[in-house]
Amino acid sequence: MTATDHTAEPVSAPASAPRLRYIDALRGIAALLVLWLHVANSYHALSPQTAAQAHWLNDFISQIDIGRIGVVVFFLISGFVIPFSIRPHGGAPVAGFAIRRFFRIYPAYWLSVPLAAFIFYWWPGLPFGGSEFLVNLTLLQDLFGVRPAEGVYWTLLVELAFYALCIVLLLTRSLFAPRRIAALCAALATLHVFAMFMQWIGRPVVSITVSFWLLHLSVMLWGTLYRLRTSGEASDHLARLALWTLAVFYIVVLPVAATLAIQRTPNYTSPYAIAFVVFLVGTSVLRIETRLTDWLGRISYSVYLFHPIVFQPVLMWLLLQPAASAWRTQHLSIYLAANLVMTLLAASLVFRFVEQPAIRLGHRLAVRREGRARIRPPAVAQAAPVAASAEPAAS
User: In the chain, fewer beta carbons within 10 Å around the N or the C end?
Assistant: First the structure.
């Protein structure tokens, strides 16, 4: 590779790396932000007393949409970690990656689907048919226009789309090419701006959902480009310029342009800008590495999946109590703390008995598949510049 050939594959790195503890901390924080928003939005109206005390714990955090901040941090983490969990040196890199990601995402998800369907539909007597249930098991319900058993599932389909994009980029020898990643990242961001502009002038070209998919995939690719830069692979001036120009776009340009167009602040771009700042601070300025955040990061996927399944039955029970009873007139912080404890307990159990065994099984099956393919040349001989920081939690 010549000094100017920055689209070729970079020099190989060691085959393994320690887990990135500060990324676990960000995962844990992101999951707790989502939990905070959903519980606060659901519980603040239990009584006039609770609502009156909920200015900072509900009204303000709803205004800036801390749940969306958490989701965007998850997307940035996926871009930072997922491409580097691919093992291009071994045999069957695509199959190995797909097996690991399948067993990382689906087992805990499959447990959540019947529980969510029961709690949100069947228990209250609402219709949720067998065909809807089966489609939910595929995680493709949004593509088929089927109702999700639980509202948070939409982010997982975005994750699957990013996995597919990573495979395409790997097969085209572009996954670890900084300039190509930057170009695709910028193109997707530009398409999002164009789509939203057309929505604003009343001539939509794609749906709002598609427009946001473009933005989310762009955000993930920025996380990949940032990882390449911090590992020293995106070292040429053009890749660095693209990285920080895009950062300014997400943090400053997009919010300012949206504010001028919508005439409202904060608006939909605000949580994206805040999430970028949180991510940059958490990966460079203030890297949190504690046992508590290690643990929160490990169980963050189950916290994300199961917190509505935990808080909804409690909420339904509380609504059956007399309006003036002590059960319904507590400070919102009490309900937040109680749901946090219950969710962490549930997430710990799911991680211990579902996620961990599934991760281990996926690893064994992937190693076996890669081993069988190792006797012949790998399909894609592209080196990853940074190894995975162990199996990452889904967003």
Answer: N
